[in-house]
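Review the following:
>
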Amino acid sequence: MSWKPYNGLTPRPAIATATRKAAFDIETIGWTEPYAVGFYNGKEFKLFEGRDCIKTFLEFFLTKKQRHLITYAHNGGKFDFSFLLQELVQNKKYEHWNIRPVRIGARITEIRVQHGKQHWILRDSVAFLPFSLKKVTHNFGVRS
């Protein structure tokens, strides 16, 4: 068998785009009552405190400035995402938004939120770093 060159197809030039990333974490009392949400986008840290911390975090996060952002929560699929989904479902402000949890087995690995042409992606970092945060920081040489 011999090969002949075929010039009918040419590859498109790669378009490199930087993906904006961020992280958030929810702190609770007794695993059920959120009292703080921390958000970090690589440049600034924001802290949302109080009984309405989930609501105020979402009001900040689901804005034009934060759109097209991929935001990670470690173990979000088994913890943090449940608080966000509860607020997104119960708050009438979001009733016409497209909110799509993505599951693998019993774990939510991603939540896609879309409103018009704007979208936000929340991902569980445990899906690709299946360790405790303590082990992750140790493995990456992060010092506290």
